[in-house]
Amino acid sequence: MFVIITYDVERKRVGKVCKKLREYLDWSQNSVFEGEITKGKLTQCLAELNNIIDNNVDSIYLYQVSNPKNLKKTVYGIAKSPMDWFL
Amino acid sequence: MFVIITYDVERKRVGKVCKKLREYLDWSQNSVFEGEITKGKLTQCLAELNNIIDNNVDSIYLYQVSNPKNLKKTVYGIAKSPMDWFL
């Protein structure tokens, strides 16, 4: 399946969340990851994220599309690269 | 159709982009809007956004799902509210 994960977490946990998501998905934009993933890997990823975030203040949104053909992505402006984060 | 729009734009344009997107979609999370929209309204929204952003440095990603039934959204942690932005 194809997933988009967006997150809005406290600053002190952004690095950890980002690092964890990089193990499973592609960095797409600030606070946005996407990519194809199996159900098992997604469950594993979410369990590990759950150990990182504070469920009372942090927010992770998971959008799942079973068939990637049903999702169309268009980029306006530039396609950000992970390196933009460090410049 | 159902759309998710994520944006990564220079700070000085965030307010304008956010304000414009609010006219068409629901604020979902920092830099993320979502909702049902007609093709015509989406075209109009994108044209107006194009007048706001700098295509050389800003980035807007549009994810379109023709049938909302093909998209499943799950929230982990808390569902952010637009008011969180001002607290």
Automatic annotation (TrEMBL), chains A, B:
Pfam families tied to this protein:
CRISPR_Cas2 (PF09827)
Keyword terms of this UniProt record: Antiviral defense, Endonuclease, Hydrolase, Magnesium, Metal-binding, Nuclease
Listed GO biological process terms: defense response to virus; maintenance of CRISPR repeat elements
- Enzyme superclass (EC): hydrolase
Give the enzyme's EC designation.
3.1.-.-
Q: Which residues form a coiled coil?
A: none
Q: Which GO terms describe its molecular function?
A: hydrolase activity; metal ion binding; RNA endonuclease activity
Q: Which Gene3D superfamilies match?
A: 3.30.70.240
The cofactor required is: Mg(2+)
Look up keyword Nuclease and say if it applies. yes
Outline what the protein does: CRISPR (clustered regularly interspaced short palindromic repeat), is an adaptive immune system that provides protection against mobile genetic elements (viruses, transposable elements and conjugative plasmids). CRISPR clusters contain sequences complementary to antecedent mobile elements and target invading nucleic acids. CRISPR clusters are transcribed and processed into CRISPR RNA (crRNA). Functions as a ssRNA-specific endoribonuclease. Involved in the integration of spacer DNA into the CRISPR cassette.
Q: Which NCBIfam families match?
A: cas2
The subunit structure is: Homodimer, forms a heterotetramer with a Cas1 homodimer.
Similarity comment: Belongs to the CRISPR-associated endoribonuclease Cas2 protein family.
Identify the PANTHER family for this entry: CRISPR-ASSOCIATED ENDORIBONUCLEASE CAS2 (PTHR34405:SF1)
Q: What is this protein's record name?
A: CRISPR-associated endoribonuclease Cas2
Q: Which species is this UniProt entry from?
A: Halalkalibacter oceani
Gene designation per UniProt: cas2
